[in-house]
Design goal:
Layout: H1 7-15, H2 20-30, H3 32-48, E1 52-55, H4 62-73, H5 75-85, E2 88-92, E3 96-100, H6 108-114, H7 116-121
Organism: Micromonospora zhanjiangensis
Protein name: SCO5389 family protein
């Protein structure tokens, strides 16, 4: 299961649309490693001033890796994080998360990161099982 959903949030979802802040808070509480990683990358983006920042450090445990995969593989979770932080997230392998400024989505940096070439160049033997 990706998220630990409180009975109140589940009841709200059964009634209709869910408040974005409540959903993002559920993600924050359920996937703390993923939340910390995305938060850190966004903070790096804010402090660096460039078009993007990324995380190249593999997760310390398989459980952490699983959180990151669940967060970024889910369209709802990923776009919820993007709306919350005001960025576009991109993902390679099982750990390389990048945050791009919205105005950098049409940049060479973004296109290189999300390209097949970029994916292939980011491979290594130790990442084959992730």
């Amino acid at each position: 299961m990706s998220l630990t959903v409180s009975p109140d949030l589940l009841a709200a979802a059964e009634r209709g649309p869910v408040d974005d802040a409540a959903f993002v808070d559920c993600v924050r509480q359920s996937l703390p490693y993923a939340w910390q990683t995305v938060s850190r990358v966004v903070a790096d983006l804010d402090s660096a001033g460039g078009p993007f920042a990324d995380n190249a450090v593999p997760p310390p445990t398989e459980a952490d890796r699983g959180q990151l995969l669940r967060a970024l593989a889910s369209d709802a979770i990923r776009t919820g994080l993007e709306r919350h932080f005001g960025v576009r997230l991109a993902f390679q392998n099982c750990h390389r998360v990048a945050a791009f400024r919205p105005d950098a989505i049409d940049s060479d940096s973004y296109r290189r990161f999300v390209s097949a070439r970029g994916q292939l160049l980011n491979q290594s033997p130790e990442l084959r099982n992730c």
